Amino acid sequence: MTDPIVRFQDVHKSFGDVNVLKGINLDIKPAEKVAIIGPSGSGKTTIIRMLMTLEEPSSGDIIVDGKNLWKMEKNGHMVKANEKHLREVRGDIGMVFQHFNLFPHMTILENCMTAPIHVKKESKEEVRDRSIQMLERVGLGEKLDNYPSQLSGGQKQRVAMARALVMRPKIMLFDEVTSALDPELVGEVLEVIRDLAKHEDMAMVLVTHEMDFALDIADKVLFLDEGVIAEQGTASEVIEHSENERLQGFLRRFRG
Amino acid sequence: MNAIIEIFPQLARGLHVTITVLLASAILAYLMAFIAGLCRLSQNIFIRKFTGFYVEVFRGTSLIVQLFWLYYAIPMLFGIQLGSNWWTGVIAIGLNYGAYLSEVVRGSILSVAKGQSEAATALNMSRFQRMRLVIFPQAVRMMLPEFGNYTIQMLKGTSLVSLIGMTDILYYGDILRSSNLSQAPIVYLLVLVFYFILALPLIWLTRKGERISKKGVANG
């Protein structure tokens, strides 16, 4: 039994008066591929945004590789983490966003190189080689000197994945990465994710509406409903054997 | 025609003052703009309030009165001399336009899309790195057209220094008019032409700034 690389312990999150997450308990093992599905507004994205430190939990603990993400010890007490602590703990986490969020003032190659050079202080040559390799892997080796505005949505998203991968994360988060794409561009992005899931030993957490895809690559599927994990298990357990009616209804809407 | 040939070189004697006051006050204004603009985004409430006070006072009162304050009132009240009237003019114009431009700086930084900062966080950049590598370079592009506009305004604002005895273009125009009242129309027409010609390169730079700002920024 390996230790989980990510553990949520009774995590709550509210925005104002709205309780989005009402007690999330969750373990993610190293290299595990987890898909989070559920109706919109159920808090799927909030889960991974808290893990990326973009959203602060209202209560509960998130443990990453044995370290408490949002809290640190000071004079024997647990206090709210400062920026330095957050940076230490989130260093192994990478994220890809729904709207790509590439840096528009940098070329594709610069987008990939900036963080390893400035954040990890790695040598420029090494980072350059690795970035080019990664961009070739996602099929954009020809576009190194292009700017994001010159790319299609699918290409942008593939760059965003390369950019995250160059940082060598142990945990990769995918936040509805195909939702903003034209239908004909979805396939090329899913292909890259499938390749990563097959060949990389990092943990992956996918928030997605691509149901068949998610069920296909995920080791574990979470069905999030009204702020709690209503169902979890392997894809076949969740899909075929669950008696959760809301899950059945949710799946029916996708299956038609 | 003869009149023009006579007046022109007279006015040109003021070019030096107009241009040096413009350049120096523009540099001061840009400096203040970035300092105050960034301070207003500080997490420290005192820094924020203090800068806000500066911005509102200088935006909310007239430049000409500020000029007179610096030139006449402050030396009397506090016994502080701000140096020559050239310096007084530069400081007044620089602080005044710095206040306006700081709002441009602040607004541009705030208008860089939130996703940019989030992506930088996801790459584990520090707050300072996010600002320096991601937000600021994009914000600066957005600022360019407004900086151009305000610089053109500043050029015209420099004409106020003639009121504290500086020998700029308008000063010589006033002298010429008072020595020959019938020439007033032609004198002031030429003064306008002078300012317009000086503004041309700034107008051109502003256009260029607009083109640069249109590409390479994520907002919305």
Automatic annotation (TrEMBL), chain A:
UniProt keyword list: Amino-acid transport, ATP-binding, Cell membrane, Membrane, Nucleotide-binding, Transport
Any single Gene Ontology cellular-component annotation: plasma membrane
Membrane topology: Peripheral membrane protein
The ABC transporter domain, residue ranges: 6-251
InterPro entries xref list: AAA+_ATPase (IPR003593), ABC_ATPase_HisP-typ (IPR030679), ABC_transporter-like_ATP-bd (IPR003439), ABC_transporter-like_CS (IPR017871), Ectoine_EhuA (IPR014343), MetN_ABC_transporter-like (IPR050086), P-loop_NTPase (IPR027417)
Entries under SMART domains matching the protein: AAA (SM00382)
MF GO annotations: ABC-type amino acid transporter activity; ATP binding; ATP hydrolysis activity
Record Gene3D superfamilies: P-loop containing nucleotide triphosphate hydrolases
Domain of life: Bacteria
Database matches in PROSITE patterns: ABC_TRANSPORTER_1, ABC_TRANSPORTER_2
Compartments, record wording: Cell membrane
Cross-referenced PANTHER family: AMINO ACID IMPORT ATP-BINDING PROTEIN, GLUTAMATE_ASPARTATE IMPORT ATP-BINDING PROTEIN GLTL
Family membership: Belongs to the ABC transporter superfamily.
Protein known as: Polar amino acid transport system ATP-binding protein
From TrEMBL, chain B:
Domain ABC transmembrane type-1: 15-204
One annotated Gene Ontology cellular component of this protein: ATP-binding cassette (ABC) transporter complex
GO annotation, biological process: amino acid transport
InterPro entries listed in its UniProt record: AA_ABC_transptr_permease_3TM, ArtM/GltK/GlnP/TcyL/YhdX-like, Ectoine_EhuC, MetI-like, MetI-like_sf
Keywords: Amino-acid transport, Cell membrane, Membrane, Transmembrane, Transmembrane helix, Transport
Subcellular location: Cell membrane
Keyword Transmembrane helix: yes
Signal sequence interval, chain numbering: none
Pfam families: BPD_transp_1
Molecular-function annotations in GO: transmembrane transporter activity
Membrane-spanning segments: 19-41, 53-74, 86-105, 150-173, 185-205
Topology versus the membrane: Multi-pass membrane protein
Family: Belongs to the binding-protein-dependent transport system permease family.
PANTHER family registered for this protein in UniProt: L-CYSTINE TRANSPORT SYSTEM PERMEASE PROTEIN TCYL, MEMBRANE COMPONENT OF AMINO ACID ABC TRANSPORTER
UniProt cross-references to NCBIfam families, sorted A to Z: ectoine_ehuC, HEQRo_perm_3TM
Name listed for the protein in its UniProt record: Polar amino acid transport system permease protein
